[in-house]
What does this fold into?
Amino acid sequence: MSKSAKLACVIGCVLLVSTPALTADNLAQPHYKAAVSPQIVTWTGAYIGATLGYGWTESASTITAIDTIITPFFLSQGTMPRSLNSRFDGFIGGAEIGYNWQIDRWVTGLETDLSYSKMGAGVTYYAPEIGANPETLTSHNTELSWFGTARARLGYLVTPETLFFATGGLAYGHVKVSSTLVPEPTFPCARNALCSAGSASETRIGWAIGGGVESKIASNWTAKVEYLHFDLGTISDTTLSKATFAAWPGKPIMGVNSDITGNIVRIGVNYQL
It folds into this structure.
């Protein structure tokens, strides 16, 4: 046998003997799989959403006499009220956008929203005819046509998925008011000096404060329940005479100052971007 043949035979024997050992060593070694990392719940980031709710508002209106001839007498006799307080309510719904920062269990953020509103109502004061005092109707209507806020939020995570929060900041809304004074309703306004009407429409700015609870319902989705109390300050309107005789057309008769405060309870759904 040649030297090369002998060398090939030796190499083959070595490989034949060592292969089972190598295979056994490989089988004996444990195999590890990468651990699956748990999903981290985070509240940090921007979000957009929608809200739907119910609002009720208190309108405390103070009536003053502008005409110095007859109206003060009517006020003193109770033919006209000195105030008209009305409670109006209705649907409110819209959109919101915000940003959260999470620090351990604390979550702070900024949120702004804008909503369409159907909150509105009216109140009428009726005074019957008594002696020289005529039958008189005094009416006042209030409407909040849209409403918005820009607020800060501060909350605490009672669980990684559930946030209790307080909120407060700027509130604004468009308020419409109208008032009428009709002494002797069966008598034509054109010949009735105090028969008058007036209105005002303004965007009022005030404040809002409240709180609520928000919870994770899916990977990027949250749902919340929220309460807000707001104050939009005072709006004023003046009734002008509808009489057509002498110098009375357009004469200011009655002033009405209305304080607009209210409450909102709403639900919302947000998507974290």
